[in-house]
Amino acid sequence: MMRLFYLCLVFASVIGVLLIQGAQGAHSEAAPPQGAASCGCDKLRRDGAQQHAEEGSDSAAPAHKYSEGANGRPQGQMVLIAGGPFWMGTDDPGIPPDGEGPRRLVHVDSFYMDTQEVTNQQFQSFVNATGYITEAEKFGDSFVFEGILSAGVKNQITQAVAAAPWWLPVKGANWRCPNGPDSDITDIPDHPVLHVSWADAGAYCSWANGRLPTEAEWEYACRGGLEDRLYPWGNKLNPKGQHYANLWQGDFPNHNSAEDGYMKTSPVRSFPANAFGLYDMVGNAWEWTADWWAVHHTTERQRNPTGPPSGTDKVKKGGSYMCHKSYCYRYRCAARSQNTPDSAASNLGFRCVAEGKT
Ligand SMILES: [Ca+2]
Ligand SMILES: [Ca+2]
């Protein structure tokens, strides 16, 4: 435990006083849009040229019933998601500029999917086996939500993301030290790994004989066989007063009441699985997908769509423990956001899929 903590501090001190150019670039971002579209986590862009620097009808069953059949599976297991057609997106978008619509018919083939977000322990196994170094470790910094930083680390930071000042570039923050250089993962092996870039996530999945899901696969999995529902469990955020995902309760970003039991990430599988046996599809950590980002989609029926052929940002899905309806109403299956592939942050993780039976 001490060794890991020591390494985090040493790593931070070696980086020294290098400025975080990614954050400097972010100062030129436009003011955040009003309302639900302004969570700011899509503003976490590194400067690529410089290395441094709700409520609806209550259609859901109680949590124990909703999760029936999903519990008892071993940690880390994949489940077979039987393919089929589904309605992707929505004609009633919560955040129209995100390209949540139109609702369109998509078919996905069968595939296997991790039941949970990839954990710190799993990522540690990957690193132990391969010696892999993440992009945030190479850059020497990552973005951390100020609410989870220690006062000591926060006081050393003079920059922030202009459009979202609660995001701070923190030297020495990476998957080993997710809350800043004076943190470590010793006590949170079963929490989702964070501070992984799109390439980092893909490298892990390749090592695990898988790949990142397409956005269509991810959304199909999120919906769990339900049609036209907001969440993996239905339309009501808290059926019968129960929390079904690790989100933000209170006044973002100043007060997190943590009514769901968690101020930050939660151990994976802390909330009920959906009908496909998948945990934390919304909330806890955002999840990278394979697709490039675009906001215009064809209404023609598609089979196994893989998104645009190129782009500047990758699609992420599901929202995180930082999402609140007032700022980031993105903890819905149709919701989506984007980051540059080299982005890393304290609320962004992933899970893998593998080819299914044909
Ligand atoms: Ca929470
Ligand atoms: Ca998630």
Automatic annotation (TrEMBL):
TM segment ranges: none
Keyword Methyltransferase: no
GO cellular component, one term: endoplasmic reticulum lumen
Ranges for region Disordered: 46-74
Keyword tRNA-binding: no
Gene Ontology MF annotations: formylglycine-generating oxidase activity
Signal peptide: 1-25
Main location: endoplasmic reticulum
Name of protein: Sulfatase modifying factor 1
